[in-house]
Design a protein that fits this description.
Order of helices and strands: EEEHEEEHEEEEEE
Distance between the termini: 30 Å
Structural class: mainly beta
Shape: elongated
Number of helices: 2
Radius of gyration: 20 Å
C-alpha cells in the first residue's frame, strides 16, 4: 500500500503513526537558599524557556552492559534492554555520569545486543556500570514558579517536554 492507512475488517481503517511518543517529564526540586534560586532562574533564562532544547538524564539504569573495553567504540549489552526503544528513540547516553556519547547503531547478536558508539569508551564497562538515557527536552512552560517552603527554602515543580530530531 502506498498510504498510511490499512484496511481492518469491512469498512474500517486504521492509521499507523510511526513517530515516537513524546513524554512529559516532571521533577520537583527543593532550593535551599536565594543563591540556588538565582542559579535556577539563570538556567531557565539561558534556555529561553521553550525555545532551546537540552539534555537531561533519565535517573534510571536503562542499559545493562555485559562487556566493554576501554578505547573501543562498541560494547555488549543484555538483550532485555528493549531493542525497540534503542532503535527508535534513544540516541544519546551517559555512562557513570562522567562520559556522554551518541549511539550510532544497535545490532542483535544471538543472546545480546551490540551497541555501536560515536566516541570510544573512556573506561571499561561491566554489569555495575550505570548507563542512563539522555533525554532531549525543552521546558514545557514559559515561566518558573518558586513557592516558599520552610524558613529558608523554596520548592518548584518543573515539567519538561521531550523533543526529537533536533
Amino acid at each position: 500500500m502506498q498510504n498510511n492507512y490499512s484496511f481492518v475488517g469491512k469498512n474500517r481503517q486504521t492509521k499507523w503513526v510511526i513517530t515516537p511518543n513524546s513524554r512529559i517529564i516532571s521533577h520537583s526540586y527543593y532550593v535551599h537558599d536565594l543563591n540556588e534560586l538565582r542559579e535556577f532562574e539563570s538556567f531557565f533564562d539561558d534556555k529561553l524557556a521553550r525555545l532551546k532544547s537540552f539534555f537531561i538524564p533519565s535517573h534510571v539504569k536503562d542499559i545493562t552492559a555485559i562487556k566493554g573495553v576501554k578505547g573501543s567504540d562498541i560494547f555488549y549489552a543484555k538483550s532485555a534492554n528493549r531493542a525497540f526503544w534503542l532503535y527508535n528513540q534513544t540516541r544519546h547516553i551517559v555512562i557513570n555520569r562522567t562520559f556522554a556519547t551518541q549511539i550510532l547503531d544497535a545490532k542483535k547478536d544471538a543472546d545480546n545486543e551490540i551497541i555501536i558508539l560515536k566516541e570510544p569508551l573512556a573506561f571499561d564497562l561491566d554489569e555495575n556500570s550505570f548507563i542512563e538515557e539522555l533525554i532531549n527536552v525543552r521546558f514545557n512552560r514559559d515561566e518558573i514558579e518558586f513557592v516558599k517552603s520552610g524558613a529558608v527554602g523554596f520548592k518548584t515543580d518543573i515539567d519538561f517536554k521531550e523533543v526529537f530530531y533536533e
